[in-house]
Automatic annotation (TrEMBL):
It is found in: Cell membrane. Pfam families: UPF0114. This is UPF0114 protein SAMN04488103_11289. Keywords: Cell membrane, Membrane, Transmembrane, Transmembrane helix. Its main location: membrane.
């Protein structure tokens, strides 16, 4: 015969479980962050669009990389928003699931970590590429010193190594039957 938990312990555990809803305001904050990022994207687009016919190929590529960088950050934000909410707060019960992305409800914490680090590596790589493309150009937005460039590359490689190590740890954890 199974023993029953004391009522105090049951209420405590129910309270702990209900505390997950304290994350909800944070996810609302991420929605506001997404709106902020959208405004920044539109500002950048409005800045670059009128210059399309007067900019060179390098300037055009830099403008496009800036917009891609912002859209990757927004994608990352959505992944964290949807996956985090579904993994830690509550499942999204949506009436019409035709537009529901195929990955929603399937990205666990491990998958979320991998998507997060992959996005960070992509964003870092794009930023690094933009800086490399501006080296030696007059009027470059952000002239960087050799030391700053070194640390930017080191930081990017650290993100890459972290991603590889996270993938390796997830792979090794998947090989074991005990967690």
């Amino acid at each position: 015969m199974a023993s029953r938990k004391p009522a105090l312990e049951t209420r405590f555990e129910q309270g702990l479980f209900a505390s997950r809803w304290l994350m909800a305001p944070m996810y609302l904050g991420l929605v506001v962050s997404l709106a902020m990022l959208t405004v920044i994207f539109l500002k950048e687009l409005a800045y670059y669009a009128p210059k399309t016919f007067s900019m060179g190929a390098d300037q055009g590529i830099l403008a496009i990389l800036t917009l891609i960088d912002l859209s990757l950050a927004a994608n990352l934000l959505l992944i964290v928003l949807f996956s985090g909410y579904e993994n830690f707060v509550s499942k999204l019960d949506l009436e019409d699931s035709r537009d529901r992305p195929s990955w929603m409800g399937k990205v666990d914490f491990s998958g979320l970590k991998m998507k997060l680090i992959a996005s960070i590596v992509a964003i870092s790589g794009i930023h690094l590429l933009k800086v490399f493309m501006e080296i030696g150009k007059k009027g470059a937005d952000a002239a960087v010193t050799e030391s700053q460039m070194f640390w930017m590359v080191v930081l990017h490689l650290t993100f890459v190594a972290s991603g590889v190590l996270l993938a390796l740890m997830d792979w090794l954890a998947g090989l074991t039957t005990k967690h």
